[in-house]
User: What shape does this take?
Amino acid sequence: VKEALEIVGKAPSFKDELWMSTSFECKSCFPRLGEYESLAIPTWFYGHEPPTAFATHIAKFFDNSIREDTILTEAYGGLIYMPGSAGTLQEIFQEAVQDHYVCFGYPSPMVFVGEDYWNKEVPVIPFVDYMIKSGHYKNLLINVVDSADDIVKSIVDFKKIYDSKYKK
Assistant: This one.
């Protein structure tokens, strides 16, 4: 993961000129990636976000609400939230509702990357913490991190919770 992040870190945003070429460079360094299937569901609705070069399949939805619901429903292994805009905030609270009601038999882990961003700049975490403490939200699996290692550790730790509580 560290080596892959170093490669794509040269152009971390789709707005960077080398974004696509660094993605293909990363794929060539890890040929086993071709052994796995993955699905990209880019934001065609807004038209400014291209699909990832890592996907083996690309879906196109013409109704953004169905796209959002599909992403959140299929992401049972966890969601990693990077700093974003209105659409990201919508996804956070839509996922919180699905997890609260355990709509699909298990909550999906939610990992927020950027402690300052999610605690101060866009204070989602203090609000969600309040909602959990006051009993308005239940069953949420949340962690806020600043490093790639902590992202991986969070997902692994959440898997242990899932296996002990939800796996049948």
About this structure: Helices lie at 2-8, 19-29, 64-74, 86-100, 115-121, 124-133, 148-165. The first helix runs from residue 2 to 8. The chain has a mean pLDDT of 88. Strands lie at 39-40, 57-58, 79-81, 110-113, 142-145.
